[in-house]
Write the structure tokens for this entry.
Amino acid sequence: MKHRMLGRDGLEVSTLGLGCMGMSAFYGASDEAESVATLRRAIELGVTFWDTSDMYGFGANERLLATVLAEHRDAVQLATKFGITTDADGSRRVRNDPEWIRQAIDASLQRLGTDHVDLYYLHRRDPAVPIEEAVGAMASLVAEGKVRYLGLSEVNGETLRRAQAVHPIAAVQSEWSLWTRDLEDDVVPVARELGVGLVPYSPLGRGALTGAVTSLDQLAPDDFRRSNPRFADGNLDRNAVLVRAVADVAKEIGCTPAQAALAWLLAQGDDVVPIPGTRKVHRLGENAAAADLVLTPAQVEALSHAVPREAVAGQRYDARGMAGVNL
């Protein structure tokens, strides 16, 4: 597995990362044994940039990673996040206050079984807390050795500029894929001006771009995608036309649709490190192979043409979810 740099201060990670969320949350019942096998295989393949959060499975995902990190901590570039909390009644809110930041990192380190994380993200922004105050508190964690590098998730370009003025930001993690392109208008140019890396999550459109999801009946009753607008009745069928177009281009390239979608992102720049999520060993291998796939400019253009930005049906989140992004 090749490597790429995130930011200007030395954070080197595998060219493709591993999104671990689905191992513990949002996509139906989890299988810990299968997930652990996938994590161990990731080490073997060199997919060592692992992404988790304190809110995935209410901390369960961090504890899951700890079982493998205990043997392989030095091999992994470990990223986790804070900022989304769940109250006793099950409702969620965003906290960016310094007191919570300090509590959150200590709890994450305990669950992960490590004394530091390589990249610590502000998962969602609370506009009531100045970004300078939140990043200042995060910077103190760097000074203490609990965190090596700082990141932000789902912020806009202005917020990124303000954050960078307080402390170097290594990466912005936001949704980016063939069917989610709004990041390109604001965040990508600012990040490149400032030397901040880009970490696309859901680079396979929550599995849709693989062509594997053709009906809601395939999804578990508690699968998050059942309430996602792009998978809603009607929208799923409309978007299937785009998915088939990607599959046609992938066939011409000689790869799978997932590999084509990942290679398209990698072709956007050397500062891009997608983190496709999976809990299956065979999918991990398929995704990892995309790191060696070099597309021609014509192939990149063909994939872009297959999914016109205005053609994707449905927002990427419901109204509540959309209110919490690009802040």
